[in-house]
What does this fold into?
Amino acid sequence: MVALDQSQVKDGVDQETVDAVAKLSGKYKYGWETEIEMDYAPKGVSPDIVRLISDKNEEPEWMTDWRLQAYSRWEQMEEPEWAMVSYPKIDFQDQYYYARPKSMQEKPKSLDDVDPKLLATYEKLGIPLKEQMILAGVEGAEDAPSEGRKVAVDAVFDSVSVGTTFQKELEKAGVIFCSISEAIKNHPELVKKYLGSVVPPSDNYYATLNSAVFSDGSFVYVPPGVRCPMELSTYFRINAENTGQFERTLIIADKGSYVSYLEGCTAPQRDTAQLHAAVVEIIVEEDAEVKYSTVQNWFPGDEEGKGGIYNFVTKRADCRGDRSKVMWTQVETGSAVTWKYPSCILRGDNSQGEFYSIAITNNMQQADTGTKMVHLGKNTKSRIVSKGISAGKAQNTYRGLVSMHPKAKNSRNYTQCDSLLIGDKCGAHTVPYIEVKNNSSRVEHEATTSKVDDDQLFYCRQRGMDEEEAVALVVNGFCKDVLQALPMEFAMEAQQLVAISLEGSVG
Amino acid sequence: MLEIKNLHVKLEEEDKQILKGVDLTVEAGKVHAIMGPNGSGKSTLSYVLSGKDGYEVTDGAATLGGEDILEMEPEERAAAGLFLAFQYPVEIPGVGNMTFLRTAVNAQRKARGEEELSAADFLKVVREKAKTLKIDAEMLKRPVNVGFSGGEKKRNEILQMAMLEPKMCILDETDSGLDVDAMKLVAEGVNALRDEGRGFLVITHYQRLLDHIKPDVVHIMSNGRIIKTGGPELALEVEHNGYGDLLSEAV
It folds into this structure.
């Protein structure tokens, strides 16, 4: 979620962390649900369901066919089992694949037509959808746009996008930011050209399922030479029970453009596990740059590991053009099981990929996450900074691939993987895969594992901090390299999350 | 201010008695020094008073301003006004020195029900105090004690002390690892904090620190007990004759 009401980020951890700990006392903050009448498709997945989803979104035939092809692929695929996570087998026929609030049957023309209950939900989450509330704390925000940072928000509630703010202002700059269902209708030429071009429908089990049943998501197109005038943001929330969320995000940064995109997620607290299988595709053309930041705070399940979100996500960026650049930053604190490897295909010469990650697992959480840096072009550069923190009985695995192809002459990678253990029942694992197929490239890998030191905690406590504040401070220090890579709004949020998700992990 | 009565302490892990009945009272406005050979229990006393894990109080009591501190959590003792300048200040990678200080100051203020210091006010105070200790802006930004020289670490301890304004300051071997110039700087910092409302307990192995921080009372500690108490001249006696005579006297 985006902390829009903060006008500045302070150096490192601060009072906000402290307040967060005090206020939220160990419980998942976003665990309530909104009572809204939902419209479900029948349980399970089949070609009929795929057609129904396509039909509900009023899609053209080419899109329906695309989905159906993906579905028949999926039927022949096996669920992957190589990740270091274990969970009960998912019954894919016991899920709802489409749910939307009844009031959304007629798509709202503007935000004023959106169900107030939905808007209230987003407000409760701290996302002010209404444009005039974007600059929180500033009276008459619309008249004084220069005094604060603006963030355009696309909010996805279960399967459906409920509204995108700032569309007009973005239009002026030529930027298209809308839900993917709108893009399919209004910009079919762009969608046809790019959808599935980075993550093909046959890519992997979950991505293929997503290709068949994705219900909505965000679409961004930044035209050549345009620097997107504000941060773009998507906010995902799973509200309905037994519903899988399959959103699809497509970001295209045309030549010489720049965009920074933020993604935040939450879900209500439930006993049964819920599935989230998203696909994010990013296309970066010549000299363009994309920053993609995620703060993932899906419900992690309770202390015994009951419930929570299964987060199986495929995120990939294709640096197609020369000198293109992509930066993934993620803070993963939620989900019962996380399976996620935001990747960079460095195809253009001199292109660059960066991956900064904080993965925190507590209680029974499991995370198998990392990145893939595939160097295809000459003089390509990548950098990986991964910070894994385990507490409780959690298992945290970094899995990363660095691959230098024969033509990727003079390419370089630097990888740094640090693990921090809190307590003695958790685990940290580092699984690097390195392939170098030319003799002029260089790959560096550094890994460390450490424990939160009792002496550090005592030192902090002697100076007046309580135990949880002390842990939050030490852990935030451990994560600093990554926190610094986040946009300002997210950095605040991430610091608080670090504190909250480690509550009760010591003592 | 600080009153220690018949304090007996053993290590939790092994059945080893470290303190065997320590009696000591530090009055407000006074500087007490504890000297003694290695292994006499000086550092243990500072850890037990500040609440470090691993020690068990088997008998006796310790109060600060009349309040029993032995039952308190370390952070409660800190908020009550107890400060320990560590012999080996701990490094905290990635946490800016300034952030650490501000978090600590505000945590204590909050615990005492006081208003938190605003960023601007805090900055003003910290800059002023840092200047007298010759701590520059760059050192305030660096991560806590990471890559600090011995002298920088100790000056940083004194800066924390100056910011937290404790009632009772315990300095554990603050002179260790310092050259003469650094020691002077640290001593000046401590002397600037001397006032009638504040007590000091200066633990040291050598007399030289006490040339710069003049004590009112000197205690000699050996084998878990205070064996002799006197004026500043007692420190000089140790300097000239070593601990040998005093120890044999005590037996």
About this structure: Residues 97-111 of chain B form the longest helix (15 residues). The mean pLDDT of chain B is 91. Chain B has ten helices and twelve strands.
